[in-house]
Write a structure and sequence with these properties.
Glucose Permease (Domain IIA); 5-stranded antiparallel β-sheet; globular; 8 helices; Nuclear Transport Factor 2, Chain: A; 10-stranded antiparallel β-sheet
Length: 458
């Protein structure tokens, strides 16, 4: 009898398809529903990213051991949400909102759940209440609401020194402004100019306004647009306003020293018995003179005084009887001295111009202005340093600049070379009192400078 090898049984095609489907479902099940070991590892990793208490950290350490050694028969599974501490609920009666770009008081009231009628009643309750409408990006407004959602109080901190509030009363809203009085201390700083005065002042820890104050103090003797040189030095003793050891502002410059091109200028602030403050030299002579050296702060001289300059527009030789100060459009222009405005208006190639008469001998002219400062018009009086207009390109001008002229008895002179008398010195009756205040300030600058230089050599 011949033996025949048995062939393997042939399974129907439908059975094979069914078996493949079952295998696929099992694989998918393993992916979607991982083993308890994989699940334990995943849970411990998730919890690691959340803040934990000491108890939670101990529990997670136990979970990690369990995950590596297999599930413990004594372990109890808890929902993952119970391992994370619940967040504190927000007080619905208090809303704290920060002003963002595009926000108005109307949008902020809406975010606080208040209506336009609430806004109208609050802001129009008084003239002072309208201050809440003047918003700055980053400003914080705090709303306190009653149980039925009505506004009880609106408060905002405008600065470290000032806050305002509105409180609902039986008669309406009551506005309140609170000012914190800072402590005042004196501090010393010094710097060396190796670029611009503004950048050097910033490196020395001075604010822009304090740097400008220093320039104004020495502005009668130094033209900060023309005279400054690399290596010039300055030092100040000035007031700082402090709240809880935080500097919130600056006060006055008490004493200052500026070395320009090797020449030393010193200024001391003194308040006389009548309460008027001015700056004087160390020996009591006034720093104030009849005219400041430059009517524009830190501007560049683009064209000097010349009797034979070729005009850039007319293209012919024409005397340039003044100084051109180039600066950005809108830069403030200051009156060089006290006087009366003879003209504030349009005049030929000067464009918008201001002409000031200073007593019987002196006259100054300011041309190509973009516009005039508020209140400056023909016939008005102005004070030295007062802003009278803004740099522009009106008239025959190729770019934004100030054309500045100076006349003595009707004759044009170079403003950079004119020398005028100083104001009155310290009154003899107050000279002793002045020296009593100035000597300690001068001594402190000397001591601070010596200590700082010695520290830098270490």
């Amino acid at each position: 009898m011949t033996d025949h090898k048995q062939k393997p049984p042939l399974y129907p095609k439908t059975h094979l398809l069914a078996a493949s489907g079952v295998a696929a479902m099992l694989s998918l099940g393993l992916l979607v529903f991982p083993s308890s070991q994989v699940e334990a590892m995943r849970t411990s990793l998730t919890l690691d990213l959340e803040p934990q208490t000491h108890e939670e950290q101990d529990a997670i350490a136990t979970d990690a051991v369990t995950a590596s050694n297999g599930p413990s028969p004594f372990a109890q599974t808890e929902p993952a949400a119970t391992a994370t501490a619940s967040k504190p609920t927000t007080d619905p009666s208090h809303k704290r909102l920060t002003v963002s770009k595009g926000d108005t008081l109307s949008t902020l009231f809406s975010k606080a759940g208040l209506s336009s009628n609430d806004l109208h009643d609050a802001v129009n309750s008084s003239k002072d209440a309208k201050r809440f409408s003047r918003l700055n990006i980053g400003q914080v407004l705090e709303f306190d609401l009653s149980a039925n959602g009505q506004l009880k109080r609106l408060q905002s901190q405008l600065s470290d020194l000032e806050s305002i509030s509105l409180d609902k009363t039986a008669q309406g809203y009551a506005f309140k402004r609170e000012m914190v009085k800072p402590d005042v201390r004196t501090t010393y700083t010094r710097g060396t100019i190796n670029s611009s005065l503004s950048q050097s002042g910033q490196r020395a820890g001075l604010s822009h306004s304090l740097t400008m104050d220093m320039a104004n103090v020495f502005g009668y003797d130094i033209d900060f647009s023309e005279d400054i040189r690399q290596g010039d030095e300055f030092e100040l003793v000035y007031e700082q306003k402090v709240i809880n050891d935080k500097v919130v502002g600056n006060g006055s410059i008490l004493s200052a020293r500026f070395i320009n091109r090797g020449k030393t200028f010193t200024a001391i602030r003194y308040t006389n018995k009548q309460g008027v403050s001015s700056y004087y030299t160390a020996d009591g002579n006034s720093m104030r003179k009849a005219f400041i050296r430059s009517p524009v702060d830190f501007a560049r001289i683009s064209s000097g005084f010349s009797m034979g300059r070729r005009h850039p527009i007319l293209n012919k030789i024409r005397a340039h009887k003044g100084i051109d100060y180039a600066a950005a459009r809108g830069t403030p222009i200051k009156a060089a001295g006290d006087g009366k405005v003879m003209l504030a208006g349009r005049q030929g190639g000067y464009g918008n111009v201001v002409i000031i008469q200073h007593n019987n001998s002196y006259k100054t002219l300011y041309g190509h202005m973009q516009g005039f400062a508020k209140g400056v018009k023909t016939g008005t009086s102005v004070k030295q340093g007062q802003v009278i207009g803004y740099i522009g390109t009106t008239g025959l001008s190729t770019g934004p600049h100030l054309h500045y002229e100076f006349q003595v008895n009707g004759v044009h002179v170079n403003p950079l070379s004119i020398k005028t008398a100083m104001a009155d010195p310290i009154n003899n009756a107050e000279k002793a009192r002045f020296l009593q205040q100035s000597k300690p300030l001068m001594a402190r600058m000397d001591q601070e400078k010596t200590s700082m230089l010695a520290l830098n050599k270490r």
